[in-house]
Specification:
The complex is a heterotrimer. Chain B is built from three helices and no strands. By secondary structure, chain B is mainly alpha-helical. Chain B has one domain: Helix Hairpins (Orthogonal Bundle), CATH 1.10.287.3510. The mean pLDDT of chain B is about 85. The longest helix of chain C has 26 residues. Chain C is built from seven helices and no strands. The chains are: A mainly alpha, B mainly alpha, C mainly alpha.
Chain lengths: ~350, ~100, ~180
């Protein structure tokens, strides 16, 4: 029962962040390009996502005549489901231990001594996220094929080939972090970062961080790797033949993928919710009783820091979109297989050597 | 009825049966390949069930080996299918009868 | 209670997807059904306290092998399966084999149910990454190394098998495609 409430809250949070990422992208792209983004609907355009949602619901729903109906309807569902599923392993904040939960009505609070801010603590969290993003490729491949149109098929196949190529580099770059942390569990990785002398794994794993970031751009089909869906190249790639609500599902799936990858980057390399120096600062200011690991104020501050780091990565995505040109497809595949994957493997070998000699 | 070892073995046997009949019924090579994968998965389930009920990690380790072998077999098998298709432009396995008679 | 319901749910899903895979003549629908089988089996592995194997099953089978199969189906643009006209005896062979295997399955089920009850030791965890990893690199190092060499062999083999089409083969393919288009008109 508690899990259901937690899932609903997390789902709501993810959707809100994704909706406002869409708005933020349009506004930030506008500022980069020297214009103001949408600002008509609500102050500073803050109600724009709701206007967009209404537009998508009321648009005419075209279904191509010769398409394979079942697969055509299945593809956006697969894409969105696989984008949202990793949500259950994210560590949204530290465990809260210092509150007596008996004030909750209906006896909900009895027997609870700690409230972890993760929905499910899976032993193989990193593999789970990587596996679900691998299955997300099907949404795109099936969409491209079932639309029965040349542009869709080409876009779908290219996009899928790109995604499966860069998955390898992403997985290999995560290996270094997993070796330093000694576990595949995301909560355990954050604990390892708290206990390590470097505080955040970005410092010893800077090569892994760069590889992961570049592979993440390719995984989510964002600039500079968005040839399969660029408007000037293939009309709109694999989602050419989709309109109204099904297109909205693909659109949302792309932004939720961005969110997923930003969360992984934050948890693996930037310490997740951990703010180094918060506890010593609180102790210095005499607030040590209110702000230590386990209090609710610490949890709130850590959670806000976590969201801040994610927003930093989302802003970086939008910034790169406004700045860089896009790769040609063969350049993209060359880069993924012949440069990025060897670099990630080099990072793994270096990490192995250093860890071995440090543990002697 | 609480799922005991017998239930998992029965499920594995049923999946293996479905895969075996599928190999005989299917005409194209990719369909046969997929039925073989189903049989391998049924055997994986048996291994994992035994590993759980005897507390031994060997079962799960063997599942890992089977998965790696299946991945290698997929790569080479699909390569053979593509090469076959290039020459005769259909992968109906009854057409692969050059050595007959 | 919950574990019973979940087991029957995922077992039912696996069997239904398996039958769907054998039934469909369109290879893409078979592939999608097989992915359904893999996902259902992964959930069963989780209930058998093998989280690493479950995650690896999704990652390798559903996420890599089936992507390869779906790619090949899309690239080769495969038609539906033709019905078995000349080879009707295959239906009987398949039916007979299936029947024999089902009988064997039920015999095994009956025998194991009658065997001395061996409940799972709920406290002993052997499915975690740590357990599997330490077994892999201490006691079972040789199989792991052999699998590494096997995968290398597979990579080299696959690369050699799909080198570029030579000019006469290209002409053959183009001719065949034009003929199919002409026939469809």
């Amino acid at each position: 029962m508690v899990y259901l409430v937690a899932v609903v809250i997390a789902f709501q949070m993810v959707l809100m962040i994704v909706a406002y990422t869409v708005l933020a992208e349009r506004k930030v792209l506008g500022w980069i390009q020297g214009r103001i983004g949408p600002n008509r609907v609500g102050p500073w355009g803050l109600l724009q996502p709701f206007a967009d949602l209404l537009k998508f619901i009321f648009k005419e729903d075209l279904v191509p005549d010769k398409s394979t109906k079942f697969v055509y309807f299945l593809a956006p569902l697969v894409a969105l489901t696989c984008a949202l599923m990793p949500m259950v392993v994210y560590p949204f904040g530290p465990t809260i231990t210092t509150i007596n939960w008996n004030f909750l009505p209906w006896g909900l609070g009895e027997g609870i001594t700690q409230l972890p801010l993760t929905i499910a603590r899976i032993d193989v969290g990193v593999l789970y996220v990587l596996g679900i993003t691998s299955v997300g490729v099907y949404g795109i491949a099936l969409a491209g094929w079932s639309s029965n149109s040349k542009y869709s098929l080409m876009g779908g196949l290219r996009s899928s080939a790109q995604m499966i190529s860069y998955e390898l580099a992403m997985g290999a770059s995560v290996l270094g972090v997993v070796m330093l942390a000694g576990s595949l569990d995301l909560t355990q990785i954050i604990n390892a970062q708290i206990n390590s002398p470097f505080r955040w794994f970005i410092i010893p794993q800077i090569i892994g961080f760069i590889v992961f970031l570049i592979a993440a751009f390719a995984e989510t089909n964002r600039v500079p790797f968005d040839l399969p869906e660029a408007e000037t190249e293939l009309v709109a790639g694999f989602h050419t033949e989709y309109s109204a609500l099904k297109f909205a599902l693909f659109f949302m799936a792309e932004y939720v993928n961005m969110f997923t990858v930003s969360v992984m980057c934050t948890v693996l390399f930037l310490g997740g919710w951990y703010v180094p120096g918060l506890e010593p600062l609180a102790r210095f200011l005499g607030l040590g009783e209110w702000i230590h690991h386990g209090t609710i104020v610490y949890a709130i501050i850590s959670h806000v820091a976590f969201i801040g780091k994610i927003c930093l990565f989302l802003f970086f995505y939008i910034w790169v979109r406004g700045t860089l040109p896009r790769f040609r497809f063969d350049q993209l595949m060359n880069f993924g297989w012949k440069f990025l994957l060897p670099l990630a493997l080099l990072n793994v070998i270096l990490t192995i050597v250093v860890v071995y000699f440090l543990n002697r | 009825m609480e799922p005991s070892l017998a239930s998992y073995l029965a499920l594995s046997g049923i999946l293996f049966t479905i895969g075996a009949t599928g190999v005989i019924f299917k005409r194209n090579a990719i369909g046969m390949f997929m039925c073989i994968e189903l049989m391998l998965n049924a055997v994986n389930l048996t291994f994992v069930a035994f590993s759980r009920y005897y507390g031994d990690v060997t079962g799960q380790l063997f599942v890992f080996m089977v998965m790696s072998v299946a991945a290698a077999e997929a790569a080479v098998g699909l390569g053979i299918i593509i090469a076959f298709f290039r020459n005769r432009l259909s992968i109906d396995v009854d057409d692969a009868s050059l050595m007959k008679n | 209670m919950a574990s019973t319901v979940l087991f029957y749910l995922f077992a039912g899903l696996a069997i239904a997807s398996g039958i769907s895979m054998v039934y469909h003549k369109n290879p893409l629908y078979s592939a999608i059904s097989l992915i359904g089988v893999f996902v259902a089996l992964s959930c069963i592995y989780v209930s058998l306290a093998a989280p690493f194997i479950a995650a690896v099953q999704i990652l390798i089978y559903a996420g890599a092998i089936m992507v390869l199969v779906v790619f090949v189906i899309m690239l080769l643009n495969l038609d539906e399966d033709k019905p078995l006209n000349r080879l009707r005896y295959l239906y009987f062979v398949g039916g007979g084999l299936g029947l024999i295997l089902l009988v064997q399955t039920f015999f095994v089920f009956y025998a194991v149910m009658r065997a001395p009850n061996h409940p799972a030791d709920q406290t002993k965890m052997v499915g975690r990454t740590l357990d599997l990893g330490s077994a892999m690199y201490s006691q079972y190092l040789l199989p792991v190394e052999i699998v590494g060499v096997l995968l290398l062999m597979a990579i080299i083999g696959a690369v050699i098998l799909v080198r570029r089409l030579s000019q006469p083969q290209l002409e053959l393919v183009i001719e065949h495609e034009l003929e199919q288009e002409h026939r469809k008109r």
